Amino acid sequence: MRFLVLCLTSLGSFGALFLIAKLIGHKQIAQLDFFDYITGITVGSIAAEMATELEEPWKPLVAMLLYGGVTVLLSILSNRLPRARKYLNGTPTILMDRGKLYRENLKKAKLDLSEFMVMCRQQGYFDLTSIQTAVFEYNGKLTILPVSSQRPATPNDLNLSPKQEQLFTELIMDGRILEDNLKRMGLNLTWLEKQLKERRIHSAKDVFLAVCDPDLNLVLFEQNPGKK
Question: Does the CA dihedral 173-179-183-187 come out positive or negative?
Protein backbone atom coordinates (compact mmCIF):
# COMPACT_ATOMS: atom_id res chain seq x y z
CA MET A 1 0.00 0.00 0.00
CA ARG A 2 2.81 2.40 0.89
CA PHE A 3 4.53 1.60 -2.41
CA LEU A 4 1.34 2.41 -4.32
CA VAL A 5 0.97 5.73 -2.49
CA LEU A 6 4.59 6.57 -3.31
CA CYS A 7 3.99 5.87 -7.01
CA LEU A 8 0.84 7.98 -7.07
CA THR A 9 2.43 10.92 -5.28
CA SER A 10 5.42 10.82 -7.62
CA LEU A 11 3.20 10.82 -10.69
CA GLY A 12 1.06 13.55 -9.16
CA SER A 13 4.05 15.79 -8.52
CA PHE A 14 5.24 15.17 -12.09
CA GLY A 15 1.90 16.34 -13.43
CA ALA A 16 1.92 19.37 -11.16
CA LEU A 17 5.39 20.39 -12.32
CA PHE A 18 4.33 19.96 -15.93
CA LEU A 19 1.39 22.32 -15.46
CA ILE A 20 3.53 24.84 -13.60
CA ALA A 21 6.13 24.79 -16.38
CA LYS A 22 3.35 25.38 -18.92
CA LEU A 23 2.06 28.35 -16.93
CA ILE A 24 5.51 29.86 -16.47
CA GLY A 25 6.21 29.78 -20.21
CA HIS A 26 8.91 28.52 -22.54
CA LYS A 27 11.35 31.37 -21.92
CA GLN A 28 12.12 29.84 -18.51
CA ILE A 29 13.32 26.56 -19.99
CA ALA A 30 15.22 27.61 -23.11
CA GLN A 31 17.08 24.68 -24.77
CA LEU A 32 15.14 22.15 -22.68
CA ASP A 33 11.80 20.56 -23.37
CA PHE A 34 9.24 20.38 -20.59
CA PHE A 35 10.11 16.85 -19.58
CA ASP A 36 13.86 17.44 -19.40
CA TYR A 37 13.16 20.52 -17.30
CA ILE A 38 10.83 18.70 -14.95
CA THR A 39 13.09 15.68 -14.62
CA GLY A 40 16.21 17.80 -14.12
CA ILE A 41 14.94 19.91 -11.24
CA THR A 42 13.01 17.10 -9.59
CA VAL A 43 15.52 14.26 -9.81
CA GLY A 44 18.18 16.59 -8.43
CA SER A 45 16.00 17.36 -5.42
CA ILE A 46 15.10 13.70 -4.88
CA ALA A 47 18.74 12.66 -5.19
CA ALA A 48 19.69 15.16 -2.48
CA GLU A 49 16.96 13.71 -0.26
CA MET A 50 18.16 10.18 -0.99
CA ALA A 51 21.65 11.10 0.17
CA THR A 52 20.28 12.00 3.60
CA GLU A 53 17.58 9.33 3.84
CA LEU A 54 19.19 6.67 6.00
CA GLU A 55 16.14 4.71 7.13
CA GLU A 56 14.31 4.09 3.84
CA PRO A 57 16.53 5.14 0.92
CA TRP A 58 14.51 3.00 -1.47
CA LYS A 59 11.69 5.56 -1.46
CA PRO A 60 13.52 8.39 -3.25
CA LEU A 61 15.20 5.79 -5.48
CA VAL A 62 11.83 4.49 -6.69
CA ALA A 63 10.63 8.06 -7.20
CA MET A 64 13.67 8.88 -9.34
CA LEU A 65 13.14 5.77 -11.44
CA LEU A 66 9.49 6.71 -11.94
CA TYR A 67 10.37 10.23 -13.06
CA GLY A 68 12.97 8.91 -15.47
CA GLY A 69 10.61 6.26 -16.81
CA VAL A 70 7.76 8.72 -17.38
CA THR A 71 10.11 11.12 -19.19
CA VAL A 72 11.36 8.38 -21.53
CA LEU A 73 7.80 7.17 -22.13
CA LEU A 74 6.53 10.64 -23.04
CA SER A 75 9.55 11.23 -25.26
CA ILE A 76 8.78 8.03 -27.18
CA LEU A 77 5.13 9.04 -27.36
CA SER A 78 5.93 12.45 -28.85
CA ASN A 79 8.24 10.85 -31.44
CA ARG A 80 5.73 8.25 -32.57
CA LEU A 81 2.65 10.48 -32.41
CA PRO A 82 3.44 13.83 -34.07
CA ARG A 83 0.00 15.19 -33.18
CA ALA A 84 0.80 14.79 -29.51
CA ARG A 85 3.86 17.04 -29.73
CA LYS A 86 1.91 20.28 -29.74
CA TYR A 87 0.24 19.28 -26.47
CA LEU A 88 3.43 17.99 -24.84
CA ASN A 89 6.06 20.44 -26.14
CA GLY A 90 3.96 23.30 -27.44
CA THR A 91 4.01 24.99 -30.86
CA PRO A 92 5.90 27.93 -32.39
CA THR A 93 4.20 31.31 -32.08
CA ILE A 94 4.47 34.12 -34.64
CA LEU A 95 5.14 37.34 -32.72
CA MET A 96 5.77 39.64 -35.66
CA ASP A 97 5.09 39.35 -39.37
CA ARG A 98 5.33 41.88 -42.21
CA GLY A 99 5.70 44.83 -39.89
CA LYS A 100 2.87 43.84 -37.55
CA LEU A 101 3.31 42.93 -33.88
CA TYR A 102 0.75 40.51 -32.50
CA ARG A 103 -0.17 41.53 -28.95
CA GLU A 104 -2.19 38.39 -28.27
CA ASN A 105 0.64 36.14 -29.37
CA LEU A 106 3.06 38.02 -27.12
CA LYS A 107 0.70 37.37 -24.23
CA LYS A 108 0.43 33.73 -25.24
CA ALA A 109 4.22 33.45 -25.21
CA LYS A 110 4.27 35.28 -21.85
CA LEU A 111 6.59 37.96 -23.21
CA ASP A 112 6.28 41.69 -22.83
CA LEU A 113 7.55 44.21 -25.39
CA SER A 114 10.74 44.88 -23.43
CA GLU A 115 11.69 41.19 -23.40
CA PHE A 116 10.88 40.89 -27.10
CA MET A 117 13.10 43.89 -27.89
CA VAL A 118 15.95 42.41 -25.83
CA MET A 119 15.72 39.10 -27.71
CA CYS A 120 15.80 40.96 -31.03
CA ARG A 121 18.85 42.99 -30.01
CA GLN A 122 20.64 39.84 -28.84
CA GLN A 123 20.42 38.59 -32.42
CA GLY A 124 21.67 41.90 -33.81
CA TYR A 125 18.33 43.41 -34.82
CA PHE A 126 18.09 46.89 -33.33
CA ASP A 127 15.68 48.12 -36.01
CA LEU A 128 12.35 46.25 -36.07
CA THR A 129 11.73 47.38 -39.63
CA SER A 130 14.53 45.03 -40.72
CA ILE A 131 12.54 42.04 -39.45
CA GLN A 132 10.20 40.22 -41.80
CA THR A 133 9.02 37.53 -39.37
CA ALA A 134 9.81 36.74 -35.74
CA VAL A 135 8.83 33.31 -34.40
CA PHE A 136 8.96 32.30 -30.74
CA GLU A 137 9.94 28.62 -30.81
CA TYR A 138 8.66 26.03 -28.38
CA ASN A 139 12.13 25.76 -26.81
CA GLY A 140 12.06 29.41 -25.71
CA LYS A 141 14.27 30.81 -28.50
CA LEU A 142 13.39 33.58 -30.94
CA THR A 143 13.92 32.88 -34.65
CA ILE A 144 14.08 35.89 -36.96
CA LEU A 145 13.71 36.08 -40.73
CA PRO A 146 15.11 39.42 -41.95
CA VAL A 147 13.59 41.37 -44.82
CA SER A 148 15.23 40.56 -48.14
CA SER A 149 17.00 43.92 -48.39
CA GLN A 150 18.59 43.44 -44.94
CA ARG A 151 19.82 39.86 -45.14
CA PRO A 152 23.51 39.20 -45.91
CA ALA A 153 24.35 38.81 -49.59
CA THR A 154 25.05 35.27 -50.74
CA PRO A 155 27.39 34.12 -53.54
CA ASN A 156 24.30 33.36 -55.64
CA ASP A 157 23.20 36.99 -55.31
CA LEU A 158 26.58 38.06 -56.72
CA ASN A 159 26.63 35.34 -59.39
CA LEU A 160 29.68 33.75 -57.82
CA SER A 161 30.56 30.07 -57.56
CA PRO A 162 32.96 29.72 -54.65
CA LYS A 163 34.79 26.48 -54.10
CA GLN A 164 33.16 24.21 -51.55
CA GLU A 165 34.93 24.36 -48.22
CA GLN A 166 36.25 21.08 -46.82
CA LEU A 167 36.38 19.71 -43.31
CA PHE A 168 39.75 19.76 -41.59
CA THR A 169 41.21 16.69 -39.88
CA GLU A 170 43.38 16.95 -36.78
CA LEU A 171 46.86 15.52 -37.33
CA ILE A 172 48.62 16.85 -34.23
CA MET A 173 46.99 17.78 -30.94
CA ASP A 174 48.97 19.15 -28.01
CA GLY A 175 52.24 17.80 -29.41
CA ARG A 176 50.89 14.31 -30.09
CA ILE A 177 50.67 12.92 -33.64
CA LEU A 178 47.34 11.28 -34.45
CA GLU A 179 48.55 8.44 -36.65
CA ASP A 180 45.05 7.02 -37.25
CA ASN A 181 43.97 10.32 -38.78
CA LEU A 182 47.12 10.37 -40.91
CA LYS A 183 46.34 6.92 -42.29
CA ARG A 184 42.70 7.84 -42.88
CA MET A 185 43.86 10.67 -45.14
CA GLY A 186 46.34 8.45 -46.95
CA LEU A 187 49.34 10.23 -45.41
CA ASN A 188 52.31 9.05 -43.39
CA LEU A 189 54.86 10.29 -40.87
CA THR A 190 57.39 11.06 -43.60
CA TRP A 191 54.99 13.52 -45.25
CA LEU A 192 54.20 15.15 -41.91
CA GLU A 193 57.85 15.50 -40.92
CA LYS A 194 58.59 17.12 -44.27
CA GLN A 195 55.78 19.64 -43.71
CA LEU A 196 57.16 20.48 -40.28
CA LYS A 197 60.70 20.99 -41.61
CA GLU A 198 59.42 23.33 -44.33
CA ARG A 199 57.93 25.46 -41.56
CA ARG A 200 61.15 25.27 -39.51
CA ILE A 201 59.52 23.22 -36.76
CA HIS A 202 61.87 20.60 -35.34
CA SER A 203 59.39 18.30 -33.63
CA ALA A 204 55.67 17.59 -33.39
CA LYS A 205 56.01 18.35 -29.67
CA ASP A 206 56.41 22.01 -30.64
CA VAL A 207 52.97 21.99 -32.30
CA PHE A 208 49.86 22.73 -30.26
CA LEU A 209 47.46 21.90 -33.11
CA ALA A 210 47.84 20.87 -36.75
CA VAL A 211 44.87 20.36 -39.07
CA CYS A 212 44.72 19.40 -42.72
CA ASP A 213 41.97 19.47 -45.37
CA PRO A 214 41.45 16.94 -48.22
CA ASP A 215 43.53 19.19 -50.51
CA LEU A 216 46.48 18.69 -48.12
CA ASN A 217 46.47 22.29 -46.94
CA LEU A 218 48.12 22.09 -43.53
CA VAL A 219 47.45 24.69 -40.84
CA LEU A 220 49.73 24.76 -37.77
CA PHE A 221 49.50 26.41 -34.37
CA GLU A 222 52.71 26.31 -32.35
CA GLN A 223 52.93 25.62 -28.64
CA ASN A 224 54.82 28.85 -27.98
CA PRO A 225 54.36 31.26 -30.90
CA GLY A 226 57.33 33.55 -31.45
CA LYS A 227 59.67 31.42 -29.33
CA LYS A 228 62.28 29.16 -30.92
Answer: positive
